[in-house]
Specification:
This is Histidine--tRNA ligase. The chain is of the alpha+beta class. Helix 1 (17-34) runs antiparallel to helix 5 and helix 2 (47-53) crosses helix 4 (83-92). It is elongated. The strands form 3 sheets. Strands 1-5-6-11-10-9-7-8 form an 8-stranded mixed β-sheet, sandwiched between helices. It has a 5-stranded mixed β-sheet with strand order 13-12-14-15-16, sandwiched between helices. It has 15 helices and 16 strands. The two termini are 53 Å apart. Strand 15 and strand 16 (406-410) form a beta hairpin. Bound molecules: adenosine-5'-triphosphate and magnesium ion. Adenosine-5'-triphosphate (ATP) binds at residues 81, 113, 115, 120-122, 125, 127, 259, 280, 282-285, 307-309, 311-312.
Length: 423
């Protein structure tokens, strides 16, 4: 039997990969505008990193990690997300000492989670994310949110909803935590086994449970917003003020909590409101994590970031009927007839490519008609026609395949003349 692709993964083939490249380039362009620089960390890390960095009460750590022992007996995990690795690298490379502060980074690459595959949920997916480390200015929270929104908007998405919340500082979180325990404890038996474990460890995560989301105690749960102390309230007010100053509409949802254990203050999600997007509406999630750098062995450093997947971005584009033209352009195709012409095409092709033209030729010894067909199939702009007789006379014919116009150029000055023709 033929070997098949693993469940929850996909091949991205030529014709579609150009859409990915377009989106990836857009993301890089926007990061450059906002002055975030790329960081590349390993695809696998020591498992310990995610136990500490993502938190052992999360779905990711509890059930979704691809973990294994390597041949040296080390516990290794394919990265399920990017923040832990970026923060590890920040601490390990002592970026807190960089002359440029805050440290603004972005990453783009595959993540791995053992999930039940469905629309918008894969076992290997590509995340784009940013992290800003070292600033506790609410303007950077607004900047990070704006960067994510800009990517979606620049691709033409309109049906977006930005949801924000604040989880407050440690004092606020602890007060809220106590209130949550009080609220859920008497009836915790009615909740799933995960929630029962979460009650003492991290009751906030109960609010994020997918199994028990419709339980009546969820709606009546104490809202974090009532437990924000003065500092936390002020911080949240500033973030909202700056979002408005940047012309961004948002909704405050006090039930929005992010999966990770170390989140505090700002939390946000961007959802698609497009009809037909499906059950999973979250495109992007992010927030502030002021305790994480220290947890990774670095000095106490505030941080904020987001992550989004290209897969869900593509679903959102599809749901809004937006088509990214998968552009693949070829400048010219050499059509050679006769033995000498074929030999010369090797030289000419090399010259064309050196001069910067994307160029192709026939490698299947096809007849003239079939070579023209091949040129059209790859949408070449020009056909360069080499014949033994013309070569002897020092001429090369060039046909514009869009207009059908044909010109003779001189063999000796071909690259110069062809460059002029293309301009
Ligand atoms: P969800 O609630 O959908 O499981 P999450 O809270 O696990 O999301 P995060 O860990 O915050 O998601 O990841 C950020 C973003 O990465 C999500 O908003 C989503 O766009 C994307 N994402 C997460 N898991 C997957 C997956 N399995 N396949 C494709 N994209 C994903
Ligand atoms: Mg998930």
């Amino acid at each position: 039997m033929a070997i098949q692709i693993p469940r929850g993964t996909q091949d991205i083939l030529p014709g579609v990969v150009e859409k990915w490249q377009f989106i990836e380039n857009k993301a890089k362009e926007i990061c450059n505008k906002y002055q975030y620089r790329e960081i590349r960390t390993p695809i696998f890390e020591n498992t310990e990193l995610f136990l500490r960095g993502v938190g052992d009460t999360t779905d990711i750590v509890q059930k979704e990690m691809y973990s294994f022992q390597d041949r040296g007996g080390r516990n290794i995990t394919l990265r399920p997300e990017g923040t832990a690795s970026v923060v590890r690298s920040f601490a390990e490379n002592k970026m807190f000492g960089n002359p440029t502060q805050p440290v603004k980074l972005y990453y783009l690459g595959p993540m791995f989670r053992y999930e039940r595959p469905q629309a918008g949920r894969y076992r290997q997916f590509v995340q784009f994310g940013v992290e800003a480390l070292g600033s506790m200015d609410p303007a950077i929270d607004a900047e990070v949110i704006s960067l994510a929104m800009e990517l979606y908007k620049s691709l033409g998405l309109k049906k977006l909803r930005l949801v924000v919340n604040s989880l407050g500082d440690n004092e606020s979180r602890n007060a809220h935590r106590a209130a949550l325990i009080n609220h859920f404890q008497p009836r915790i038996g009615e909740f799933c086994s995960d929630c029962q474990k979460r009650l003492e460890k991290n009751p906030l995560r109960i609010l994020d449970c997918k199994k028990d989301r419709d339980h009546e105690l969820m709606k009546s749960a104490p809202s974090i917003l009532e437990y924000l102390n003065e500092d936390s309230k002020q911080y949240f007010e500033k973030v909202k003020q700056y979002l408005s100053a940047m012309d961004m509409d948002y909704i405050v949802d006090p039930t929005l909590v992010r999966g990770l254990d170390y989140y505090n203050h700002t939390a946000f999600e961007i959802m698609s409101e497009a009809e037909g997007f499906g059950a999973i509406t979250t495109l992007c999630g992010g927030g502030r994590y002021n305790g994480l750098v220290q947890e990774m062995g670095g000095p106490d450093t505030p941080g904020i970031g987001f992550a989004l997947s290209i897969e869900r971005l593509l679903s959102a584009l599809e749901a809004e009927g937006i088509n990214i033209e998968a552009e693949h352009s070829v400048d010219c195709y050499i059509i050679a007839l006769g033995e000498e012409a074929k030999d010369y095409s090797v030289t000419l092709l090399q010259k064309l490519r050196t001069a910067g033209f994307s160029s192709e030729r026939d490698y299947l010894n096809r007849k003239m008609k079939a070579q023209f067909k091949a040129a059209e199939r790859i949408a070449a702009k020009y056909a360069i026609i080499l014949g033994d007789d013309e070569l002897k006379m020092g001429n090369i014919a060039v046909k514009n395949l869009e207009t059908g116009e044909q010109t003779e150029l001189s063999l000796d000055h071909f690259i110069d003349e062809f460059s002029k023709l293309c301009r």
